[in-house]
Amino acid sequence: MLSARSLFQEILDNDESFRLFCSIAASGETQGGWENARIAALVPPSERGLAPKIARHGADEDKHGRIFHALLRKRGLAPVPVPTDTDYTMILERHGIGLAHDRLRADRPLTVPDIVAYLAHSRVTEQRASEQMDLLRRYFAGHPDVGRAVRMISADEDNHLAYCHEELLRFAADGHGRTIQRTLRACALAEIRIYRDVSLAVMAHMGRILGWPRARSALLASGIRSVYAYERAAGWRRMVSLRMPEHRNALGGPATHAPEFA
After folding, report:
1. In Å, how far from its chain's centre is CA 191?
2. If pLDDT is split at 50, 70 and 90, which confidence band does 261 have?
3. How far, in whole angstroms, is CA 102 from its chain's centroid?
4. What pTM, to 2 d.p., does this model score?
5. Element housing 166 (H / E)
6. Structural contact between residues 99 and 114, judged by C-beta atoms closer than 8 angstroms
């Protein structure tokens, strides 16, 4: 029977599909680490108090990249180049979601609207990351190879999402509410489309590696498109709501270290 658990298990059990999975994940996390580090360095003077939290966010993402590389090393595998059609982070950037990399490479301070845009983008993408890692945690928290990694990354993603909620509510109280809602809606509608396309690409690559029959690949593609149809109709709204998190100041401390994998 085809299920999310059996699908992930099949990917984890095969060296080549596991190598592609970890390479894609590591690349996205490392890119996110660079973006957050640059944003922290360019925070406008009026928001310097936010810089340590943004830096912590970036350090967490870098840590996640190292964890995925460590999982590869544990199995004696090397990363592979990430196919361009599976590069979620770079595709988002090319579609104008978040701050442009050319802007982040410039040595001039960001503006408050830039920070609001960054937080709105992060609120949407961290929703996706939190949900994905929650799924993996439910299925593989006790897995002997990936369990610790899944638990740690999932907790971090939950913290990132809580931080985005709290900071966006602060900016909304300062008069940026309409801009935040407009930006969140645009980001969410773009993200669900890009997530659909990237998911289709990833499953196509996995299908070739694992030798899936055409009928199974078609069924998975249909499922991905069905999820998109739901998200386009109503599901995107979960990505734009804001509520004060139970865990306040979630990124107020230092980043935790990546675990060692023997």
Report:
1. 11
2. low
3. 21
4. 0.94
5. helix 147-171
6. yes
